[in-house]
Amino acid sequence: MSVETVLGDVAHGGVVVARIDGKVTFVTGGLPGERVLVDVRERGTRFDRGVVTEVLDPHPQRVVPPCPVAGVCGGCDWQHADADLQRELKRRVVEEQLRRLAGIDWEGEVVEVLPRWNWRTRMRYRVANGRPGLRAKRSHDLVPLPDEGCRIAVTQDPGERPGAGELQVVDAHSGHVEIVDGRVAGEPVVTERAGGRDYRVAAEGFWQVHPHAADVLVDAVLRSLEPRAGERAVDLYCGVGLFAGALDGRGCDVLGVELNKEAVAYARRNVPGARFQAASVDRFLGRLPKRADLVVLDPPRKGAGRAVVGAVAAMGPRAISYVACDPAALARDLAFFVAAGYEVTRVEAYDLFPQTYHIECVATLTRNSPLH
């Protein structure tokens, strides 16, 4: 049975908040201020989850999603909001997380990065009855691709795949590669380009999925650190050497640390002038240099954590650039840095994942500098 309610503000995770029968309910498919009917589908001890079944009083920036499975497939969260509202919703989330978890007042903007459609260069599908599909929102159920394919993917419709169980599609700078049930059909190594430099990466390896993301983030990190030739730099969670390459290009002495051994092997080829260690960052802390001038942190979604932050601060870098794909984890780690004697001088936010709730931020930390 659906319940009528007026939706509150946006919350992290592609939802808006409602209070139904006195209980906080995270609602998908709605926009702030809308009067809607909500079907409560998941009940918990602290909060419930619901889905909008009908919009009675729409937000002025609500639009008709171009994808027929928007709201069902788990790939997109905000197709029903226009581009300006999507960025505003993401801005509010970053602002709220920084204020609540780190005590930082942030009034920045979310920078638009085009294209907003057909941007996802890496897709992973499950295949049923020969037809690729994507998982439903908060479910393992499979949603078959519509006839027009996935609107956010570079390769919108990969076609029928009889007998396959899983399909990965990679649209790299060097070309198109497919991986069917773990077997690469095409080149197993692709080339990506960022900051005027080529990077080799395994077809199944990690690289930013928006075609302009790597360039955007390299530019942001270089602005953040303002590296000078001869400075000692540490790149933690370095992957195949994206930021290490940018710092090496500015004449820095770079050490990169990355858990994935295959990624480290590529990093050594991509940036032969830098040094790389294949190790868990958490377990490498005791082997970090005593001093460093610059540090780049690009941790996984869960963030770096208190121990890593403490070890980074102990090296006494003059500047730290923290690249984050989760604003909550970013805010928690920034609070640790502040406690360790660093100040957040800038936070930049980029809409590198249009139509979804995801957002990328780059924070700059220095000692004894005011926030602006």
Describe this structure in words.
By secondary structure, the protein is of the alpha/beta class. It has three domains: about 60 residues, Nucleic acid-binding proteins (OB fold (Dihydrolipoamide Acetyltransferase, E2P), Beta Barrel), CATH 2.40.50.140; about 180 residues, Vaccinia Virus protein VP39 (Rossmann fold), CATH 3.40.50; about 70 residues, no CATH class. The strands form four sheets. An eight-stranded mixed beta sheet has the order 7-21-22-20-19-16-17-18, with helices on both faces. Strands 1-5-6-4-3-2 form a six-stranded mixed beta sheet. Strands 10-9-8-11-12-13 form a six-stranded antiparallel beta sheet, with no helix packed on it. Helix 4 links the parallel strand 17 and strand 18. Helix 1 packs parallel to helix 7 and helix 2 packs across helix 3. The protein is globular.
Task: Fill in the keyword field for this structure.
372 residues; single chain; Rossmann fold; six-stranded mixed β-sheet; alpha/beta; 7 helices; OB fold (Dihydrolipoamide Acetyltransferase, E2P); eight-stranded mixed β-sheet; 3 domains
Give the beta-strand count.
22
Name the CATH superfamily assignment of the largest domain.
Answer: Vaccinia Virus protein VP39
**Which descriptor suits the 3D outline?**
globular
Helix/strand order: EEEEEEHEEEEEEEEEHEHEHEHEHEHEE
CATH architecture of the largest domain: 3-Layer(aba) Sandwich
Mean pLDDT across every amino acid position: 96
Would you state the CATH class of the largest domain? Alpha Beta
Termini distance?
48 Å
